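[Solved] Which block belongs to which protein?

Original post:
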Amino acid sequence: ESPDGSAFERVRVRSVTRNVNKDEGISFFLLLDNSGSMWDDLDGKPTTDPGATRMSHAKKAIRDFLASLAPQARVALATFNTGYDPVQEMTSDAGAVAPRIDGVERPAREMGYTELYGAVESTLVGFGETGRRKALVILSDGEHLPPASAGSKTNIEDGIESAVREGITCYAVNFGDSADNTLPRLARESGGLVFDADNS
């Protein structure tokens, strides 16, 4: 094992347990992009049909995911755009999260940017849940596009370092055709995957 990737020391394996993840459960943190473009359709075009937006598809995916969770699982939800909004703290009651999703509304124009890296870093650092397997699921359609006036203070390297240090596996669900090209690195280096959700 190595805390820094450079100095390694041999550690004795004291036991191996079958199905330990099933018995202990997994803590999932869902990070939902609520930037302006998430309210376009899957082709990235403006729409007046609420059911055709990327956001409606992302919300449905989250509801379906919550319904499939094992009883031992725990889940939290946050949204991000120009800012970061913790919507539901970590809970073992997946049913409590679904109503909170309905409260996610289109942001004001000035809040419609995508501060992706800062949101990822905030989530990873505040994840908690020691002693359990942890997974961050990022549902987003865009690149890291903070407002020019903000001057982003974080980068994806911070996220990768935090994910590896905290033992958090990162997954990205891409709802657009311009997904941030660094998200595959975050997923890969933390042991996760990227999925393209280019249709309903």
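(Second protein starts here: sequence line, then its structure tokens.)
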Amino acid sequence: YLVDQIRERYMLNLPDIFEQKLNERLDRQGVDPQSAESELKELREKLGKIGEVNLSAIEEYEENSKRYEFLVKQQSDLIDAKEQLRRVIDRINRICSKRFKETFDLVNERFTKVFPVLFGGGEARLEMIEDLEKGEQGIEIIARPPGKKMQNISLLSGGEKALTAVSLIFAIFLVKPSPYCLLDEVDA
């Protein structure tokens, strides 16, 4: 109806005018109608590949975002707790090392005094040894009964070992007394 009205009133063909104006406009913008059509086709194909719009994506994103924030907070709490535990362990290790060293020194002092009393002479001491390969520490008992040279307890005779062990036990009891003590098969 509109095309007929324009033709009767103005003696113009509306589809031709539309085509002419469109070409003028495209020429002014520097757009080629062929390339514009191919671009439109390409964009429609890309839009088709995207597929349907997921309307619940916003809700899923919010849920996942809340879950992520919760997990990040939990991770932060765990890292803080781990660091606190590490500090407590270091503190306990320092305290234990200090107390062990103090007790070791006291026991060694008493051991050097008790050993000559039980043996009627000689000397003995405790030494801390460290195995660097294994990262372990230990205690070595060095003793010299009267008339012998200074040596490790493992090189002494059975009776000398037993008497050295008893003197070490008495040295420990002098540092940290016990209300009673049963010594059964001391020589073993």
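Accepted answer:
You had them paired correctly. Confirming on the second one: The longest helix spans residues 57-119.
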